[in-house]
Amino acid sequence: MTGQTQDYIDVCGLKVARPLYDFVVQDAAPGTGVDIEAWWAGLARLLNAFAPRNRALLAERDRIRLTAEEERATEEALARAVLILWQASILRRTRLKVVDEVANGLSYYDYTFLRELPQVYAEIEDQLAKTDPAWKATELPSFLHMGSWIGGDRDGNPFVTAEVLHQVLRMQSRRALSFYLDELHLLGGELSLDARLVGVSDELRVLADRSPDRSPHREDEPYRRAISGIYARVAATAWTLDEVEAPRHAVGEAPPYANPAELGADLTAIHRSLTGNGSAHLARGRLRMLRRAVEVFGFHLAGLDLRQNSDVHALTIGELFEQAGIELSYTDLPARAGADGAFAPGAHKRKATGLAVPDLF
């Protein structure tokens, strides 16, 4: 209605208009035996799977003048997408496992966070540079990182075990490293600069010479050889950490990276060579986004919150007390004992033992 703000409800990552939400929950679902939470989750899964392609088709149709054949093809593609959504089942017949939920969550990274978060940093830097030229060569520190609790929440979920946690961490790492490998492959195709035509820093030459790429066809393309070497090292890292084969075989053997900072340093060497030799515009494209992605997502993709039932915490702390010889029963302490000083050094008595036990709190 004109002049009124639409009220929306957040459900499974979707923004649902209040009238539609009320209709589904209050009128449509009751008496059907449908688990309404599972229904919303299924709807979100379908929309997340098809919405990016649908948005791209609509944007293309609205942005450029299409020929009659192109317009007909676009309309047919949209009709197919709508038909798939209509005929796909929203509800699954089997219960999702924790790793299925993790996989659903990670799917957001492919078309949002891995690409859009570096873009956010780039836009902030560019706006600062427009406001004050002194910011032009400044790169912001990575102050915004991703976090998740999916796969780490054990409070009330007996299926989140240590084995599941290990699997989740590997799934996250695989997603980040696979993205880097894909971007490096594309970057190598872009930076085919000939050293006979452009200047190259000594740092970049060292990086290129260290690469296992010995193809005579790329002898005068140090950037491509350097990127081939970086790709080989990331591929080795993916195998070492996650036992994942690179989507495209590396040109040769290379040692894995010890940490994301090493990978970032190699990418920065490429950046410095480009900016120092008249090719700064090339450093502001895919390379810029990849450098930021490595800094933000590392090899772990996102921090994982670990939540545990308070009974398990109490049991664990009780065992620590016992091992340290502390004569306290954690479960008998007042609720605010920790905050009020019961855990301060000297606030507890230890049993006489032959071990020198340091203060734990």
How would you describe the overall organization of this protein?
The chain is mainly alpha-helical and 361 residues long. The chain folds into 3 domains: 8-95, no CATH class; 116-304, Phosphoenolpyruvate/pyruvate domain (de novo design (two linked rop proteins)); 310-361, no CATH class. Helix content is 55%, strand content 3%. It is built from 11 helices and 4 strands. The chain has a two-stranded antiparallel ribbon. The protein has a two-stranded parallel ribbon with strand order 3-4. A hairpin with a 2-residue loop joins β1 (8-11) and β2. α5 (162-190) packs antiparallel against α10 (286-297). The protein is globular and about 75 Å long. Residues 338-342 and 345-361 have low confidence and may be disordered.
Uncertain runs with pLDDT below 50, 5 residues or more? Answer: 338-342, 345-361
Strand order of the largest sheet: 1-2
> What is the name of the CATH architecture of the largest domain?
Up-down Bundle
Helix content: 40-55%
Give short descriptive properties of this protein.
361 residues; de novo design (two linked rop proteins); mainly alpha; two-stranded antiparallel sheet; globular; single chain; 4 strands; two-stranded parallel sheet; 11 helices
